[in-house]
Structures are given as structure tokens and as C-alpha cells.
Amino acid sequence: MMDPQKGLTGLRDLIAQTRAAGRLVEVDAPADPVLEIAHIVHRHDGRPVLFSDVTGYPGWQVVAGVASAREYFAMALGVPVEEMIHRLAAALENPVPPPVVGDAPCQEVVEPDVDLTRLPILRHFPFDGGPYVTAGIVVLNDPDYGRNVSFHRLLRLDGRRFAARVVERRGTDTALRKSAGDLPVAICIGNSLPVLLAASMSPPMGVDELAIANALAPTPVVPCKTVPLHVPADCELVLEGRLTHATAPEGPFVDLTETVDFVRPGPVVEIDCITHRRNPIYQALLPGGLEHKLLMGMPKEPSIFAAVNQVCRCVNVAITPGGASWLHAVVQIEKRGPDDGRAAIEAAFRGHGSLKHVVVVDTDVNPYDPAEVEWAIATRFQADRDLVVLTDQPGSSLDPSGTHRPGKKARTAKMGLDATIPWGADRAAFEKVRYAE
Q1: What is the 3-state secondary structure (H, E, C) of 143-170?
Q2: Cα distance between residue 371 and residue 377, in whole Å
Q3: Choice among 255, 261, 340, 418 that is catalytic
Q4: What is d(CA 103, CA 234) in angstroms, rounded to the nearest whole number?
Q5: Rounded Cα–Cα distance for residues 133 and 409 (Å)
Q6: Rounded distance, CA 213 to CA 230, Å?
Q7: CA end-to-end span of the chain, whole Å?
Q8: Per-domain residue ranges for the chain?
Q9: What is the full DSSP assignment across 254-316?
Q10: Is position 255 annotated as part of the catalytic site?
Q11: Which residues contact 207 (CB under 8 A, 6 or more apart)?
Q12: Is the Cβ–Cβ distance between 213 and 81 less than 8 Å?
């Protein structure tokens, strides 16, 4: 059996690191996966929380919040927070195919009978459609482009089935439409942060997300037991099965924007085999919480970074939590020409199609500090000169103010603010005076 401690940066490694750093919250008292665990996680949002006594589920632990601060990602990748975008961009541009192993920790136990009710799947709110898997990544093969790995929320319907939220015209939906019958899938829960980051990215078609994860940190994969797929060897739990063309109502569910997403038909996933580690840890993700926001938004920063660098010198990108870590971004550029700000705005929208509002700032403005960004808008931006408005653009299904029609891409207006120092102006008149330390 492969030693999970050698060359791996899995979930258990991160738990150990956050414990050593004094960041881990450990709950030893009994905690119920129906509402109670979610409430406790919310109370500690921003810190990892480990539950060792899960009511009704002996032998299982539950962890949440491991992705709720940029520092945990930096810890997992071994880089400073401000350097993460460069590490992510390098992995996106230079993926490394993961090595295949013959056996792995995620297959230490093979369940003889499938019963999803034996898993401590959380219910977060009383109005939820039911218990939801929120930190699961789905692995499948597209017949034309190969392996695809992505996040999908999964509503448990019964002991063998989920209803999945699958966004139209993205990788999973495209692969399912090509399949005349059921599409083999593997749902992996309890993954390393590099795997979670890679699964959140949107690389070009044909680029393997697990190869991106392997470029971030060693990510061996192992063949599944019942489907022709490979999964991260060090994850905690694997659900092997089929994505079908049957549908079931999916929702309600609290989404990234902390608003309730509506009920819509979702394809049904049927599970045929369950494997997991000994003494497994079920990973949950708090809907609308900080880790939901970071995992959705931060992996889009490298694609914005790359797109803006095609037209001007981009220094950094921050997708902001105030914009639900999806709809708003701050782009920091080293301005070298009069049109760089406007060019950066247009490129940012190309780099992240769901982006709604973007602010471009100079290198003396901290893109992670909302007060500094607002200061730049107040002192360097003129609406009749520096505002870019694009009407009737493809938008995000997460934006409740957009135009939504069943089966069609959401539409929205987009806005860019060039809050850089005007080209040719006296820089000294725009630069903030700093007190000596």
C-alpha cells in the first residue's frame, strides 16, 4: 500500500498543519450533521473545524473550513499568499500528467453494499432540498477531450442516487450530451487543496485538471474499481457510478451569493460502488461561506491574469469576497501606455466570463484591501472618462439580478472602472503620502 505521508499534500496533511499552527478548531462533543454542524462551522468561518463525534455516524469524522482563508492555500502550496497567483498560473500553463499507482489509501475499504444514508452528508438549512454533498469533485471522461474534473453540488435523493447541479454548456453537460447512455463518473470527497483548486479552474478543453493539481503538488492517481476512471489516490472517499439522462428536482440550495438558488431539473447520478480510507474523514463545504467563495473565485484569478498580460503588464488579480468571490475583481497593472486601463478591463472580462464588475488599479494600490481600492476610485477615476459599460453580455447564473431563461446562458450588463493614474499626469499629485515607519 502506498504511504500517504510520502510525497502527498492531502487533506490529513493540511489538518495536521493547521493544528500545529493553532488554527484548527476541534469539536469533541457530539454534533449532528442535520443543521448543527453547519451552524458550528459558520460560527468559526475562516478556520478549519474538525468534528470527531458525528451523531449517528460512528467511525466517521467531519471536517470543514480547510479552504476558508488564503493562508491555508499558501500553506498547502508552500508559497507566500501574494505569490499564489504566479504558482497557479504556472501550473495552468504547464500541467504535469499525474503518475498512476496500483493501490491507494482511498481504496483501503470497499463497501460491499451501497447506502448513501450511511455517509454523514450535511443538511445546512431547514429549507434545503435535502442533504447536500458540497465538497465533492466529479471525474469523468469526455470522448473528445479526455478527463474532466469539476465541482458539482449533489442532493442525496435516497440510498443510491443524487441529483446533480450541472451548468449548461460546461464540461460535464457537454460530455453527457455526447453520451447516448449513462456516463461513468467518480465522485471524490476529502481532497487535497491542490486538487480542489485545479477542479475549480476552467482550463482549455483537453487540459486535465488532475495534471494541473500534479503540477501544484504530487498527485498520484489510482484506477477505480468499477468505472474506467482514475481518481486522486489520497482522497478520503470515492463514489463510483453513472451520470444518467434521467432528471430530478434539484434545490433549493444556498449558493455563492448567499441567496437561495431556485429549484431546477438536475441529472440523476446512480452510485454502484463506494471506497474509502480507514477511519474516514468526510469533507464538507459551507454554502456561501468563505471557503465556497475562495474555491470558486481564486482559481479564476490566473485566467484573468493571463488574459490581461496579453494586452498589458499585469501584476496581480484579486477576486473579492464582497463580490461573492465570483462577480467582482480588482486587477493591478504596471501602466505603460494611455490605453492600458481600458485594455485590461476588456481582457479581464475575457479571462473570466462570469465577471460582472472590474476595477483596474496601479501598483501602489493593494488589490486585497477594499479601502485602498475605493481610495483609488475616489482619487483617480472620472466616470465620463474612465468608465466602461457593456450591455447584454453573457453573465452568471449566480447573479440574481441578471436575466435568466431556462436552458439559456444568463445575460447581464458589465462595468469596468479604470482607477489608474491618468496617462501623462503628474504622478506626485496622485500618490498617497506615507508616514515614515
Answers
A1: CCCEEEEEECCEEECCCCEEEECCCCCC
A2: 10
A3: 255
A4: 10
A5: 25
A6: 14
A7: 55
A8: 11-285, 296-429
A9: E-TTSSEEPPEEEEEEEEEEEEE-SS-EEE---TTSHHHHHHHHGGGHHHHHHHHHTTSEEEE
A10: yes
A11: 92, 95
A12: no
The Cα–Cα gap between 400 and 404 comes to 8
Q: Which fold has domain 11-285?
A: Pnp Oxidase; Chain A (2.30.110)
The helix (H) or strand (E) run that includes residue 39 is helix 36-43
Q: What is the DSSP letter of 323?
A: G
Q: Which fold would CATH assign to domain 296-429?
A: UbiD C-terminal domain-like (3.40.1670)
pTM for the structure as a whole: 0.85
Alpha helices in 202-264 (DSSP H): 209-216
Nine-digit cell at 236?
478520503
How many of the other CB atoms lie within 10 Å of CB of 206? 11
Residue-by-residue pLDDT tens, the chain, 437 positions = 333 333 346 899 999 999 999 999 999 999 999 999 999 999 999 999 999 999 999 999 999 999 999 899 999 998 988 888 889 989 989 999 999 999 999 999 999 799 999 999 999 999 999 999 999 999 999 999 999 999 999 999 999 999 999 888 788 889 999 999 999 999 999 999 999 999 998 888 889 999 999 999 999 999 999 999 999 999 999 999 999 999 999 999 998 778 888 889 999 999 999 999 999 999 999 998 999 989 888 888 988 999 999 999 999 999 998 898 899 999 999 999 999 999 999 999 999 999 999 999 999 999 999 999 999 999 999 999 999 999 999 888 778 888 888 777 889 999 999 999 999 999 999 998 888 87
Length of the chain: 437
135, 193, 232, 237, 339 from 224: Cα distances, Å:
19, 21, 10, 12, 52
Tally of CA atoms within 13 A in the half-sphere of 341 that contains its CB: 23
Strands 237-250 and 146-151: unpaired
CB of 309 closer than 8 Å to CB of 277: no
Q: Report how far residue 167's alpha carbon sits from residue 184's, in angstroms, rounded to the nearest whole number.
A: 18
How far apart, in Å, are the Cα atoms of 340 and each of 11, 145, 362? 41, 35, 11
Q: How far apart are CA 278 and CA 425, in angstroms?
A: 65
Is 102 exposed, middle or buried, given 0-12, 13-18 or 19+ CB atoms closer than 10 A?
exposed
